[in-house]
Design goal:
CATH architecture of one domain: 3-Layer(aba) Sandwich
Organism: Eimeria tenella
Strand order of the largest sheet: 11-19-20-18-16-13-14-15
GO biological process, one term: methylation
Radius of gyration: 34 Å
Number of helices: 46
Shape: globular
Protein name: Cap-specific mRNA (nucleoside-2'-O-)-methyltransferase 2
Strand content: 5-15%
Largest sheet: 8 strands, mixed
Structural class: alpha/beta
Distance between the termini: 92 Å
Pfam family, one: FtsJ
Number of strands: 25
CATH topology of one domain: Rossmann fold
InterPro entries: Adrift-typ_MeTrfase, mRNA_Cap_2O-Ribose_MeTrfase, RNA_MeTrfase_FtsJ_dom, SAM-dependent_MTases_sf
Amino acid sequence: MDGSPWGAPPGATDCVAEDIEIEKQYAFSTSLLSLQLEGPIIPGSDPPCAHCKSKRIKCICESVQLVGNTPGYGAPELEEVVQRLEERRNFLSFIPIDEWKRHTAKTDVLKKVIPTIKQKVRDREGHAPELLINSWTKFYEILAKTPIVKPRLQHLLHQQQQQQQKQPRVFKSIHLCECPGGFVAATNHYVKTEARGVFFSWRAASLNPYFEGCSPLEVLDDDELYRHSERRWISSPDGSGNICKKENIEFLWKQLTRQAHPSVPPFGLADLVTADGSFDVQHDPAKQEELVVPLVYAELVAILGLVQLHGSAVIKAYSLHSHHSVSLLAILSMCFERVAVVKPLMSRSGNSEVYLLGLGFRGIRSPLLRALSSAVDSFSLEKAIIPREWIPDAFLAECRKCAEFFTQLQAEHVELSIERYKSITSHELWQLSLQREQTAAEFIESNHIKPIRFEDRLVPDKDFVKEWEANGYTNSTRKGSRERVQGVLADRIRFREVYMQLQQQREQKWQQHGGCSRALCLLTSQAGIDALLRCTYTPFEEAKTMSEDGGDGELPGAIAISEFYSIDGKEDNQEAATQEAEATATWLCLYPEEPQQQQQQQQQQSAPDVASFLTTFTARARQGWSEQQQQQQQQQQQHRATWVPSAAAVAWRDEMLQGLQRGEYNARPSCWLYPLRPLVPYTVQISRFADDRLMTVVGQLRHLLPFLVPISIADFLLLEGRPSALGEKLGGQELPPSSSIDLLFALKQLEATPGGPSVVFSPGSSRRGPAGPPEKDFPAIWRKKYPVCVEISSWGAPLALPLQLMLRRHGCSCFVVLNLPLQQQQQQQQQQEHRKQPVTREVLEAAIPKAGPLLGVQEIDVLSAFARGETADYIKRQVQEKVLSKLPGDGASLVSLDITGVQHWRREETAQMEEEEKNNFEKGGKKRRQRGLVVQVHEEIAQAEIEAGLLLLAQIFQGLLLLAPGGDLLLRVHSSYTRYTASLLLLLSLCFGSSCLYRPPSVACWSGEGFFLGRSKRKNETGLVLQLLGTAWGLLAAKHKAEKASPAHAKPHRLGGEPSSSSSSSSSNQFRFKVGADFVDWGGLTAHWALQQCIKAKLWILSYNDSLLRQQKKELTERLEALIAASRAAAAAQGPRVGAPAGAPAGAPGGAPAPGKCPGSTSGAPLLPKARAAAAAALRCLSQQDRRKQVAVFLKSQGILDLAVRKDSPYHQCLPSSETKEEINEISEWGSIPLDSVDTLALLAGALPSLSVQAAAAEEIWMSA
């Protein structure tokens, strides 16, 4: 066979249909239409059922039970041609896939088809056909050269000419597995070209590109059409869109063919149903048919319930070698008048892709359809779908002949490509270039491709068209498709194995720990060394082999997923990476700054404050006037540039506000709010608001780490603040809990310029950078700006309320609202049993003596209210009666929300820890705190976020009610990877003039926590948002009420879900907690509006999450390498291994065996001091004094030290003397005048009034002085 795509294959004349003009085709002559109704092949039931007997039809109700339950069978007739193809494929296995793609692109004669169509087929406004991609050209050829839609369109046109039908003439199509949308775009273009006046109506279904539980190896990232037409896409009860489940197929049938709402008619059955499903099989291309056939079968079953009589079906399949493909063709032949298999020109000749055509649907018996749908969930490669006895020999022979025909074509093309890969001349390349031009022109002419009017497009939006044409290389909002693993076949196989193994281990851990992920614990240095020397945690032991090569051609025992991805480009700049690892702030401005707000800020900056003047003056003396002037000008330029919202932000803001004003979310069905089942954290694999590759890499690192040891400043803050966090009263010499330090950073960030760079101290840098802007008198600013504050928290400890802990120390008044989760309520009951006082006004006042007034403490139990089915009006009344009525004015000027108190840990471990502490207290005479454990987080990065979903909605609703117009808001969240959380944050950003996602440098990267900062609340927009939040709460409450009334609700569930032996366990039982006798869902609301209309704004969250994930990847990698180095150093110091340690539970911190035992030693061998010393040296463990020094220097450099602790604290005293002396020298000398007293500064200010200072801020200071 020559290289021409138009060459007719030999032996094709006896299987060609005259009305099918595609060159590569096979039309079946044998029909199985009569099998359902008559004949002895499918035996009838004896006696027949009453229904079939009344209809006087053949009863097959018992025979169909054999569907999917009979043994499979082989195809010895195809062995020769299949072996020939496999020999050629084996040669390709040793060629890197990117290199092979470059070769095939160079020799592809179809390369210019799409560019030529874009150039020559344009409408009056100069636009090319919509969504013109490879799938568009393939299906357009099928539409133009086969009778799948021509007869129906001709019938509709005839009715239009005869005027026999007053109803609109509508052509309906349904497209399964449709993303990115090439088939529906091609259908629309063909109908508008060949049948003008016929209305085209369509629906589609596909794997949801936004569903977090979809695998990145299967779901397509292309969402260009999906996000602009989401109302037309049918999902599934779990939101995944996975059609390979019987439940989801029946849901699809119900949504399209039954009337769900009285005011909305059903879509109905379709004239054309297509299925273009597939997924990446680069890890095993030889078994593509076996891997994809379950999906193809599910598509066929769905089609049989969606296509109307005399309609058509198109299904993509592969190879047709197996008995499953024979069953697919047999089912089509039993239900359609004609069956054909075609391979369009634009379908690459080197792949095994073919399209099955079913022409003229004649119907299907209900018992057979029920049996086919039941076999979807129990599909097995070893079992035949249709029993071999039901298939006539003549039809089976045609199936073998068809498979051989297309396999022969594929083998010949692969052989030709290999020959050209080995050697190709310049003359042959020149001939191919000429052939490309000819092929493109012939393709347009033979398929009669013409332009359509702009208003006839699927999305007649000029902005959409401009964006598509500007980024025509991708159909994804990421401006680039997901990265596929390259390399040779062995690399792709190994990546697949590592990835799937990680997902299986995640599920196993979840089940082993009773419906919860493993606790990733931060231990003290001493406890960490002990745990490391006794560690038998299996994933950590495997991680030690990652840097070791396999011997004798074997692969290493473990491979890091990061080795397969190219995600290290941004870490080359070490200085930038170090600075980025300390803090992350991403601002979003949706409204221009109002003149009144600008005036207030200028008044605050120019306020005649002597302390601020002296601080500013000394900072200038330290830095130098010229350098300070340049920095201030740069900040002013950044302020002016970032304070004006971008055009994209304005467009999104206006669209959102218009939808809120019209109340579009109240419509049913609604694409704004759609209740779904709660996510199970171990199933989270992708996020529309983060890089999936980074999520996978970080997830593997968290899986490999047995525990954490303190090595960073954030760890030291947690360690140093732990004593005060466990106490009930803040001592004068103690460092406040780390959450209080985090809050101080967040409050300072609220005063920063949006978008301005943050000057962050780097502990590893010995060189001092340029001095930052002049320090403000933050206590004075806070007292003036936030006279009344409200803190809404899910924590129930006195010192776990950072807002009242910090701001009351500086003179602000505060009101505390508690939304305690179930665990905190149980802990309070236990505390009362142990004679501990609950959190009351008196307890909080005693915790911070000599502080600002505490206006009150109230508890609003939103979870119990939700369990009772209370609506948002109940919460509103509670807030007004208990809190708002006791606040002066219109509300609080600052509201702080904190949902991070929600933690689900194993009850067995908690009970055991409490029992051990109780025993230690009784034996030792005094309570001994649990040693070693500092803090713990979930190994699954999205678990805490998912668990806190309901409280997040409730706290945002309460916070907006309590916040006064123009006030600021702080919201501490676990993370923002799911659509639920990201949607709420995007909606919340509409309520403020500017918003920021911020991770302070004091927050540990591995925790994933951060802040949403909202500045200057807007009253009108907040009212609209509150209405939507109330509707969302009502939907969740109604869903819970319906589940509560269902019989399945009577089954008890464990906290966090019940462990299951099957991976297909229902996720509806996950994340329930018990309030009284009721189980309450933690969430389950998906806000689709954030995906459809907030695409531009979502990049705000995406950039923040990607930056945070990069920091986690870098830090967790360093921690894992440090633990591995310490383990090896300890092993070398300990001596040779004598025996293997016994296994330990995977969930134990560090997987430690009995105390006193050493890994690699016999059961009675003690831990040697040399091993401890070697491990400590490798981990660079610091003493408490050294940790305090680093904490003090860090807080001092950030301007936080004086705000957090008293000046007589040990942290002030442990500042390095050399640094103190250096600072004194810098501050005390300016020119030849010593600056060592207030009098000298005042004299200098009055003696030098003519200093050349051009910065506006400097002039204001001189005027104030």
